[in-house]
Design brief:
- The structure is a single chain.
- The model is unreliable at 430-450 and 518-533 (pLDDT under 50).
- Helix 4 (79-90) runs parallel beside helix 5 and helix 13 (434-483) runs antiparallel to helix 15 (500-517).
- It is built from 21 helices and 23 strands.
- Helix 5 links the parallel strand 2 and strand 3 (124-128).
- With 706 residues, the protein is α/β, with parallel strands linked by helices.
- The strands form seven sheets. A six-stranded parallel beta sheet has the order 4-3-2-12-1-11. It has a five-stranded mixed beta sheet with strand order 18-20-21-23-22.
Length: 706
């Protein structure tokens, strides 16, 4: 009995060896977040495929669209109009109101009225931003303790899949700040007699009605320790804008909404105007489908509030991911499944034609993929996020490697049989005459050649298949790189670490060598990459000249001649600059402000001088860049030969709300924001040199490294 067990273990040890080896590799890649983008896309497909649960009647979203902004005449809308909107909403007696509009500064007229409205609305929750570039809350609401954070957490592909319920504000002595949706949901639930209670301080487990919540843990659902700051939950989306009751600001102000539509409900007020740029990609956004648009931030907060309240009142399931060791176990199970099934198929099909082997293998892969994806979708419907990409990859890799290992083992067995046969032949040579001995040897060798023909054919076919698979995978990577031309920094670092270009060049030669030598057969393994900007959370390496040129191109229409002045001349003097780590989108904003201000100066001068006078003195904007090696920095100078500025103006030029432009032509924010971007976000310097009557030059200095 023991000998049989030992023999079986000896024959199948390659299964366990291959399965464990592949599983360890895939698990390592999973913990390094190499497969996150693919896993996220599969999960997003589940959300898009899932049947919606209808309209959440407990949440009303009041939207401010482009028509509302045009009617208001400005953005942000004046305090007077906002106060009127809030009063109209409050008249319907909602339980909680979430104002997803930053209001840290007065927007006259009507600021005093807005302040009084804030004080009179205990159900109102305002917003602030504490992550990245901070935005302060309305002072009155801060004083009343009616503020929530509007910050959202983005995945590596710039999509929102997690809800940030609370976050620590490091600039307020580590205060814990609750999110806007969290505050609104808790205030709504107070009327139901439902309060948040702490059930387990160590696990940070809270009870809320019929629901219990624990924060997202490191490595849960594939998120690293660095990604799970604050109190985060996986979002179980209710749906898009079509799944919430929506009314426009214009309808509210004109009284065209039903009298009790907001009574005892949650109300979120926010912008859906494209010009405000308050939009985010979500699982409902498919980059391959132009009809699926990004989602306004106010609807994301509505989804979070819906998840909290429906979980507390109706026990609606949230989403939970597998822990790190559970994911590892899941990958190992599928790796063992791939290795075991391929071993069984190979052993049963070894005497069949190659066509039958491929047919059975294809049907097996197809069936297991349906089982895996279908099972993961059913688990998703019951509140569990089960990995799909990593176990399927482990299944495929284990299957391919095990098949090759089996055939290699069969080749060794055949060689052993040949050796035994040759030994027997030598033992019988004394009993045979020379002719009979040579004849027997010839027959034996012919038989052996026939016996090893199938294993060699199998090997040749497998290597040929492996080459085809490699070509397909390489083509897929190229398509992926085309679709995501700017991968994240993590993906680029990993590609450099593994020297991806060398692997893609050397692997085909390795397969050719295996094809010729027949000594060793190795498996084909594939490394996957994700990769979102607009600016990312971290700085990226960028070419400043590209930013300057793109900004000049945008402003080209303003540089052309018109009936008031000749064309403005641009003189570029670019130095040899290296790429630097920066937020290029923010720097482009700085370039835009400085260049637009210079053009505004020339337009202002054109109102005072004749066209002929301006032709005698061409209007010139100079853009210079240089590398300052002594200071380990780069310099950018943007100057004009306009009218210059007085010492008084120069002393105040970067002050908040200070402007020299006429009413309605300037906000006094551009240069203040520009300096904030340069100094605070990049650790650089922004200075101005100006002489009245000769022109102005702004000098930017940015460090090469931070």
């Amino acid at each position: 009995m023991w000998s049989k067990i030992k023999a079986v273990a000896q024959r199948t040890r390659n299964i366990y060896l291959v399965a464990i080896t592949v599983a360890v590799g895939v698990i390592a890649g999973n913990f390094l977040s190499l497969f996150n983008v693919l896993e996220w896309e599969l999960r997003d497909g589940f959300f898009r495929f899932r049947i919606t649960e209808g309209i959440d009647q407990e949440i009303i979203v009041v939207t401010i669209d482009e028509q509302d902004i045009q009617a208001a005449g400005d953005w942000p809308i004046p305090d007077e109009l906002l106060a009127e909107l809030l009063q109209k909403v409050d008249q319907q007696s909602p339980r909680a109101i979430g104002l997803d509009i930053y209001r840290d500064l007065p927007e006259e007229p009507g600021h005093e009225e807005l302040v009084e409205t804030f004080r009179a609305m205990p159900t109102l929750i305002g917003v602030e931003k504490i992550i990245g570039n901070r935005v302060n809350p309305p002072p009155v609401l801060e004083e009343l303790g009616q503020v929530g954070i509007a910050d959202l957490v983005l995945d590596g592909d710039r999509k929102v899949r997690r809800a940030l319920l609370t976050a620590v504000d490091d600039q307020r002595n580590g205060d814990i700040r609750a999110g806007l949706a969290t505050r609104v949901a808790l205030k709504y639930l107070e009327a139901e007699g439902i309060e948040l209670t702490l059930a387990d301080a160590e696990q940070q487990k809270f009870l809320l009605g019929k629901a219990s919540f624990v924060p997202l843990k490191p490595n849960e659902a594939g998120y690293s320790k660095q990604a799970v700051g604050g109190y985060q939950l996986l979002m179980n989306w209710w749906g898009g804008p079509e799944n919430f009751v929506t009314v426009s600001m214009a309808d509210v102000l004109s009284g065209e909404v039903e009298a009790d539509v907001m009574r005892d409900r949650m109300v979120f007020i926010g912008t859906v105007a494209p010009s405000t740029n308050d939009f985010f990609e979500t699982p409902y956004h498919n980059s391959q489908d132009s009809n699926q648009t990004v989602m306004p931030g106010v609807y994301i907060h509505a989804n979070i509030a819906s998840q909290l309240t429906r979980s507390a009142i109706k026990g609606r399931r949230g989403l939970a991911g597998l822990s790190g060791w559970q994911q590892a176990s899941w990958i190992l199970v599928w790796s063992l499944t791939g290795a075991g099934s391929s071993w069984i198929i190979s052993s049963r099909q070894q005497h069949q034609q190659q066509y039958y082997f491929h047919k059975v293998a294809f049907l097996s892969v197809f069936g297991m993929s349906v089982l895996l994806i279908g099972g993961a979708y059913l688990a998703f419907l019951h509140g569990w996020l089960v990995p799909v990409a990593t176990p399927f990859l482990a299944f495929l890799m284990s299957g391919v490697i095990t098949t090759n290992a089996y055939r290699q083992q069969q080749l060794k067995a055949t060689n052993l049989d040949l050796q035994v046969a040759l030994e027997k032949l030598q033992e019988s040579k004394l009993q045979l005459v020379q002719h009979e001995k040579m004849s027997a040897l010839g027959n034996l060798v012919a038989g052996v050649a026939h016996e090893i023909n199938n294993p060699i054919g199998f090997l040749n076919g497998s290597v040929a298949n492996a080459q085809n698979y490699l070509q397909d995978l390489t083509a897929h990577i190229e398509v992926y790189q085309e679709a995501y031309a700017q991968p994240s920094e993590m993906v680029e670092d990993h590609a450099e670490e593994i020297d991806l270009d060398y692997v893609r060049e050397d692997f085909p030669r390795l397969l050719d060598s295996m094809h010729g030598a027949m000594a060793r057969i190795k498996a084909i393994s594939t490394s996957l990459r994700t990769f979102s900007r607009a600016d990312t959370k971290d700085k990226v390496s960028a070419d400043l000249h590209e930013g300057l040129d793109s900004t000049l191109l945008i402003l080209k229409y303003r540089l052309k001649a018109n009936e008031h002045r000749p064309a403005i001349e641009i003189v570029k003097d670019y130095g040899n600059l290296p790429t630097i780590d920066c937020f290029l989108g923010q720097l482009n904003q700085v370039f835009m402000n400085l260049l637009a201000n210079a053009i505004d100066v020339f337009d202002e001068v054109a109102q005072q001088l004749s066209f002929e006078a301006l032709k005698d003195k061409p209007q010139i904007i100079t853009v210079k860049t240089a590398l300052c090696e002594e200071q380990n920095s780069v310099g950018i100078c943007i100057g004009d030969n306009g009218k210059g500025m007085t010492e008084e103006v120069k002393a105040r030029i970067f002050e908040h709300l200070f402007t020299t432009k006429g009413v309605g032509k300037g906000t006094g924010l551009g240069l203040a924001i520009a300096k904030q971007i340069i100094v605070e976000a990049h650790g650089g310097k922004l200075e101005v040199q100006s002489e009245l009557g000769k022109g102005t030059e702004f000098r930017i200095q940015l460090p090469l490294s931070t």
